[in-house]
Amino acid sequence: MFKHGRPREFLDPTVIARLAGLPLFARRPMQGNVSGKHTSPNRGASVEFAEYRKYVPGDDLRRLDWRAYGRSDRFYVKEFEADTNLRCCLVLDTSGSMGFGSTGLTKLDYARRIVAALSYLAIQQGDAVGLSCVAGGIVTNLPPRRNPSHLMSLFDTLEQTRAAGETQLVSVLHELAETIRQAALVIVISDFFVDPQLLRASFEHLRFRKHDVSLFQLLDPLELEFTIQRPTRFLDMEGGSAIFAEPNQIAERYQKALHDYLDRLKQVTVETGVDYHRIRIDESYEQVLMRFLVGRSRGKGVR
Amino acid sequence: MIFLQPLLLAALPLLALPIIIHLINQRRYQTLPWGAMMFLLAANRMSRGYARLRQWLILLFRAVVIAALIFAISRPLASGWVGSAVGGVADTTIVLLDRSPSMQQRSGGSNLSKLETGTAQLARSLAALGTPRYVLIESATNAARELESIDSLPTLSQAGPTEAAADVPAMLLTALDYIRANKVGRTDLWICSDLRENDWNPNDARWQSLREAFAALGPRVRFHLLAYPAQPGDGRAAKHSPTNHSIRVTGVRRQSAQSGAELRVSLQVMRTAAAESQQPLPIEFEIEGARSVLSVEWEGPVFELEEHSIPLPANLTRGHGRVSIPADANPADNDFYFVFDAPPPRHTVIVSDDPAAAEPLELAARIAPAADVTSTAERIDRTRLATIAWERVALLLWHGPLPRAEQAELVESFVASGGQVIFFPPLVAGPETAFGVRWQDWHESPEPLSVRSWRGDGDLLRNTLSGQSLSVGQLEIRGYSSLEGEATELATLENSAPLLVRAATPRGGAYFWTTTPHEKHSTLARDGVVLYVTLQRAAAAGAEALSSVAERTAGPLATPTGPDATLPPAEAWAQLAGPADALSSEYPVRAGVYAHDDRLWAVNRASSEDRGGVLSDERLATLFGGLPLQRVDDRAGNLQSLVQEVWRVFLMGMMAAMVIEAALCLPSRSQSGGSAA
Lengths: 303, 677
What we know:
CATH class of the largest domain in chain A: Alpha Beta
Helix content of chain A: 25-40%
Strand order of the largest sheet of chain B: 17-16-18-19-25-24-23-21
Radius of gyration of chain A: 23 Å
CATH class of the largest domain in chain B: Alpha Beta
CATH topology of the largest domain in chain A: Rossmann fold
Oligomer: heterodimer
């Protein structure tokens, strides 16, 4: 697997091995280009019967159901569900704020682990994986491919990613919604420090394009609890102006603003049918992915 | 507010300490790269109103804590008295103490008089203030006296009660002289008084010059007034003060009676209006140790007892006595001392060139008005004037040109020792002057002139005891002499010419009739009543001065020229009756009966003490117009010190501020890890 050499620090083989037993499913039909294990909106050659259809000239005669002809003297074509692969588009926020981490692990580090594991799993089950690193715009874009060697370049890209620049997540998501071909699995990994109302539009756009959207919101424990004691000069990691504050004085209002935001974001994701995962980055990412994958497999079968 | 350790106030800039700590705290901030700026911005936007105010309040209370601590260790004194006397302690403190009898008033529920309360308050307050030099000017002597320590003031005999009225302007003058003579620096003048009008003499002309003189001294002299204005009759003090009575003897006369002799005493009892229930008042008479009690009951504020008769042993011709009433609010006016003696003989000397005019004069002077009185008269030539035994003469009648040279000196010294002289005009005026008056031309009037007006309210022509006026109006004047000089007119003719005048003399009396008793000139001899009464009244007044007994109003011994000229120095006085604790040097200001050689005199409080009203606040403000005066009204028997250290208040304030600060610092809700800033 590591033909080209060095191990990646964000890739833990034991975790991968434990997760490999769980398939990565999409919650809605995907349009792949080869057969795979995902349901497709098209009819195909699987073993799962879909429907009878009247023969129309041009249909392959081999697919005529002669038994039905014998019973009804009409030509029917027997159709089966198509199983296809999916295109998994991983959108990784690499803006400055992703560089934050109070537990020794930045959000970006955490995001790398998720991206690496997901992409490995996806490619292993024959799905195509692409990666878009976004900050002020799309920084790096790897189109979805399904060959394992693609994984190498994906890992390389991950490794080179640095947290910098401001977040233009909303416009980037709109752009991706247009550029990714229809019905793909779009997984966005970010801290989503954007007004939820602005995100709503982009989520709806993605949904309109029949993408299955999943969100991983990475939050640092310090951001959530805000347990800073000393007067602090807060430097904006995305280049904005610094703020001087006495944390004790504003902690209460900070908490209020934070929870207000989280509630609104939750509301938006529920209303837009987005698969939303809020993650504290001191959690084990294996558990997070396990939850994610198990939740997916339960939702399989929806066409 | 005044501070005993004002230097410690220099530490007040430490108030800035919380602010400095706050700033330092802000300086040692940490810098933290932060991702979730949107929440910080939102939190900052919410940071308004109470949240921000709380921070300021916390800072404020921290500063208050430090301020209170500094004030507390500066040992502040609190009192309305020294309220705004910022700037430390004076170099000299002059205490002006009113020792007048009204200061002995007590209020209900207390055994302390105003004077005792005042001195105790002064001692406590001034001891707390701590001035290097104390000067006492008390009303009895009006002399500045340096005190070793102010603590001794309440026990000092010079601060005890007296019966002498105070003279506040004179005390202030003494203080002014002291300030000028000793060139003292910052001075505090503390006046302790009950603001009686008779002590303060608000109409006195000296106030004007005092104000100007003190104003010229500038702000280095500050006035503090410890006032005890409450009177028993006052509404505000009525419930505290019992009724007060004051007693005063208005006349004492010894006269013979069938059973030996009796003493006729006239007295007056005054009562403050506070009394509702009229209870009989026992008046105790004590004469040479023998006591008798008369119980009286009356309505209204004043009771007058006229000619109360007390039998005397026949052989007791002279002696002393006392009337007293039971103790009440003011013990100083419960006793009155008197002395009595057989009336001295009224010896008249007549110097006249005109026998026709001298005859009626001698006749009028010789007839005694009462059985007890001996009236004698002798007619001498003016050349034998030097041979007269002047110490026995009560009245000198002088008809003819005014005395000159040695004669004039003799007459003047006679008047100065209390004698009375009445001049009658010569027909031809000479150039001589006596007592500032000179005879002018003689006028004859064809029609008899009548008297237009005369003074019936006093002096020789005053109304009789029964209130009837003398028959001066019936006099007919045909010849009179005009006068030149300053004199008080007692009677005026219808053409505005004076008939009887009195020249101003410090003692004794010098009168001028402008007509003679000669029947050609007037009906003075024919309607002899007026002449007789004037001569006898003058003779009685002259005899009074010769008497070996005397009444005296309590007060410091005056200069030798005054009415006290004949009194010996205070140390020579022997006390026959009076307060046992009186110092011999203070006999002149203490009520009592005193003797020296064969003379006897009673000392009593001034009559003004019994009626004196209280100076109104506006009046007081006028008196001290433009001068820095601080006034504190106290009450007799007040045990609370006027000046006290109040550092405890500041300490408590400090603790309160700390508690409030802590409460403000508490996190409003239990947040995890939130702690006091």
